[in-house]
Amino acid sequence: MEKEFRFRGPGNLPIIPPLEESDEIEERDEQSAMTEDKKHSDRYFLQYKYIPDLVADMLSGKISVDDLMDKDWWECSIQLFKDMNFYFEWDELHCDKIKVDDDYEMVVYTFPKPRQTPDAAYGAALINITNNSAIYYTLEYSFGEKWMLCSMNQGTHRNYGEVENLGLENFIELVSEKAKEF
After folding, report:
1. Contact (Cβ atoms closer than 8 angstroms) between residue 44 and residue 78
2. C-alpha torsion sign, points 36, 43, 71, 18
3. Per-residue pLDDT tens over the stretch 57-116
4. Residue 5 falls inside a structural domain
5. Which residues contact 33 (CB under 8 A, 6 or more apart)?
6. How far apart are CA 139 and CA 172, in angstroms?
7. For residue 91, is it within any domain?
8. 140-175: string of b/e by CB count within 10 Å (b at 16+)?
9. Cα–Cα nearest to 119, from 48, 60, 27
10. 3-class DSSP state of 3
């Protein structure tokens, strides 16, 4: 009998069958024992590799738009496929979907407070629902306590320059303006 799959692996992460009763489960390290470099590396992975890979998977039809907001699934799949000791402040991550206009919707992420360059305060997948395209934007903490509006698209990072961090609504407006250039 063929097994039903419990988890899907985004990007190039493998797909595995559900655990058997005989499978051993690796113990997680205490988060307090992790170095700040490890924590920063894990935040960076989620913000600049994992979410852009999810956006690409959504465009290719491997996952749905709703999967772009399923942080419980993210946590499980990252721990299973990448690192059992993956660190992220999951309770401080907020995801929402908003309709920009008849052609665009946006999945918006509010990340935990940035601690160092280039942690992001916010992220947004701007999705053109009429032509199945999307770009992932971030508001990145930069040197000199400045903020940069940036994007990740097909592995390419683009910097649009310095902006003020006036909060989530301002970020949504900045990304919505990018829809006119999209």
Report:
1. no
2. negative
3. 999 999 999 999 999 999 999 988 888 889 899 999 999 999 999 999 999 999 999 989
4. no
5. none
6. 10
7. yes
8. bbbeeeebbbbbbeeeeeeeeeebebeebeebbebb
9. 48
10. coil
Q: Which residues pair with 150 in a beta bridge?
A: 138, 159
Residue count (the chain): 182
Gap between the Cα atoms of 174 and 68, Å rounded: 20
Q: How would DSSP label each residue in 43-108?
A: HHHIIIIIHHHHHHHHHTTSS-GGGGG-HHHHHHHHHHHT-TT----GGG-EEEEEE-SSSEEEEE
61 found inside a domain? yes
User: Can you count the helices (H) and strands (E) in the chain?
Assistant: 4, 6
User: What range defines the domain where residue 78 resides?
Assistant: 35-178
- pTM for this prediction: 0.80
What kind and span of H or E run contains 135?
Answer: strand 133-142
Overall domain count for the chain: 1
Asked, for residue 21, whether it belongs to a domain, the answer is no
What's the rounded Cα separation, in Å, for the pair 169 and 98?
Answer: 12
